[in-house]
TrEMBL record:
Residue runs in coiled coils: none
InterPro entries reported in the protein's UniProt record: Acyl_CoA_acyltransferase, Dimeric_a/b-barrel, GNAT_dom, SNAT-like, YCII
Molecular function GO labels: N-acetyltransferase activity
CDD domains per record: NAT_SF
First and last residue of the signal peptide: 1-17
Protein name (record): N-acetyltransferase domain-containing protein
Domain of life assignment: Eukaryota
Pfam families hit by this protein: Acetyltransf_1, YCII
UniProt organism field: Cylindrotheca closterium
Domain N-acetyltransferase: 47-202
Record keywords: Acyltransferase, Signal, Transferase
């Protein structure tokens, strides 16, 4: 009986040792993965963002050169030019006091190879040239956080609506990354940049979500209740009012109803940002078209009631 118990004990210990040997690596991997995820989240949460100084450009150039092949990377002079002439659209990610990545862009009216080397301050497109992270900080969520912060900054600061959309070129293996960041793939690009095929992607500058805890979005819809000749004298004042709302960040986007010839008329809509319904209503009552009793309007009205909409 004692011998049988000993044999059973040995078998049990052997089985236990086998199970530990079999599952220990998996357990260690899960623990390591959890610890890495926590460390990465800490890095992302500690990131800050700022515009680069001239003395930052050599560091940015090192990151750029390590991120793209030689025939694709921006030159040192190009980065200096973007920092000095398009600095509003050049943003560095900072961790532990050091630059760990950056996003930079220039404005243009047409997304063409020639326009990518210049900056047009009035350009309606924002062409993003670089989204790069230092090699040792890659695969930690920094690129996503950096690009999303950049996009939100552009959307919030584009109060006059002069930038219609953000555009960029990407290779096939990075399309998923950019789509997750809110961009859509338009087409294979005719622009030749290096040896490989590139794709054009685009993202609207219209903000997609309210700022957390700071605002709620309201939809104001309106239809003309007077003949157009009676409404027309108030339209310039209405446009000035909309412009003021954009300058103060209250107007997210607006649009007007178009007739069969594509001409404005009949009404429109506007997405407003306000802290409360009462605050949004107060803004609407300042609209010259509302004050002059030219329109029937609703706050949070049904979008479909105003017909075909052309956004502006």
């Amino acid at each position: 009986m004692c011998l049988l118990l000993t044999v059973q004990s040995i078998l049990f210990l052997q089985t236990l040792a086998f199970q530990q040997e079999k599952f220990a690596p998996s357990l260690r991997n899960r623990v390591a993965s959890t610890m890495n995820a926590a460390a990465n989240e800490k890095i992302v949460s500690d990131l800050t963002f700022r515009r680069p100084l001239a003395e930052d450009i050599p560091t940015c150039f090192e990151i750029e050169s390590a991120s793209y092949p030689g025939d694709e990377a921006a030159s040192l002079d190009s980065l200096y030019n973007r920092q000095s002439n398009a600095g509003d659209y050049f943003q560095c990610a900072i961790f532990d006091g050091n630059i760990v990545g950056f996003v930079c862009a220039t404005r243009c009216s047409l997304f063409e190879e020639e326009s990518m080397s210049t900056h047009d301050p009035e350009g309606k497109l924002l062409a993003i040239h670089s989204v790069v992270v230092q090699e040792k900080y890659r695969r930690k969520g920094i690129a996503s956080a950096m690009l999303k912060c950049y996009v939100e900054k552009v959307q919030v600061e584009n109060i006059d609506g002069s930038i219609e959309s953000m555009v960029l070129l990407a290779k096939a293996h990075l399309l998923g990354f950019y789509v997750k960041c809110g961009f859509q793939v338009n087409r294979p690009s005719p622009i030749v940049h290096g040896q490989e095929l590139w794709f054009e992607l685009e993202k609207s500058t219209v903000r997609g979500l309210p700022l957390d805890g700071q605002e709620t979005w309201f939809c104001k819809t309106e239809t003309f209740k007077r003949p157009f000749p009676e409404v027309k004298p108030h339209l310039e004042a209405h446009k000035d009012w909309v412009k003021q709302l954009r300058q103060h960040g209250y107007c997210i986007t607006s649009g007007y109803r178009v007739d069969s010839e594509g001409k404005p008329g009949g009404g429109g809509l506007m997405f407003l940002a306000a802290k409360s319904y009462d605050a949004a209503q107060k803004l609407v009552l300042q609209d010259p078209l509302v004050a002059s009793d030219c329109v029937d309007w609703q706050l949070n009205g049904w979008i479909g009631q105003v017909g075909d909409i052309q956004m502006r």
